Amino acid sequence: MSTPVPSAELGAFLRAHRELLKPADVGLGSTARRRTPGLRREEVASLSGVGLAWYTWLEQGRVTASRQVLGAVARALRLDAAGLRHAMRLAGYHEPVAVADEGRDRLATAVQPVLDSWPASPAVLLDRYFDLLGWNAAWSALWGSPETVPADRRNLMWLMVADARLRSVLTDWEPLAMNVFQHFRAQAGTALAHSRTSEVYRRLEEDAPELRHWWGCHSVAELTARKVTVEPAGTDRIELTLSSFHPVDDPSALVLLFTPATETDRSLMTGLSRRPLRSVAASR
């Protein structure tokens, strides 16, 4: 059974959403000029049916909340389904049991044949920190081999913003890259406070400081299925469909699969995958 835990990350998440709301968003009339943006804590407390002192402590990460009370707070803050799920995970509810670090190799070994079964569809296995545990030949042919990236930067968030080849190949990369960060927060739960997450954010700060607002943001969203356009050097534009799923052995891990949209796209990806793999150094 899930046990609620005090969470500074939960408090920061709730506070960020409170500051985004206007009184009119929750049916409150305009009042005198406000010194700070968004709703006041007492307004959220009143809408949620809780005491002001308790809600203040919740934002400060000093108390826990039951599912029912956290649900009431989420409704007061107008959180969507992804936001509610994220809040519940930060509080300790519905947190998937992750494979221990020593079990990552076993997971990668078990999933690798699945990745390899898609010779024309780039695919990658991510752990709960979005570190790359496995990938197939089509992924390396399209984005470059992850083996050329230093181990401490072999992370999907880092690749999306700091890897020159990925950004040059992926048309309109920003919406997908931003969604990757949002989905990481939506599913990470207590992994947000882990030292590995802190290390990834430090590497991002070193290599892409101009985008620090992406990993400093508290917004969350699902990584939904979408069409992705890529333009690899030496071949025509290719349309791919992104989908994702969780391995049964570790629900906190994630497999991303980019499937060619048409037979023409499949033929182009097959040709790309058959080329000799060029060594691509990571952008620093």
From TrEMBL:
Residues 13-84 form the HTH cro/C1-type domain. InterPro entries: Cro/C1-type_HTH (IPR001387), Lambda_DNA-bd_dom_sf (IPR010982), MLTR_LBD (IPR041413). Gene3D superfamilies: 3.30.450.180, lambda repressor-like DNA-binding domains (1.10.260.40). This is Helix-turn-helix domain-containing protein. It comes from Streptomyces sp. 900105755.
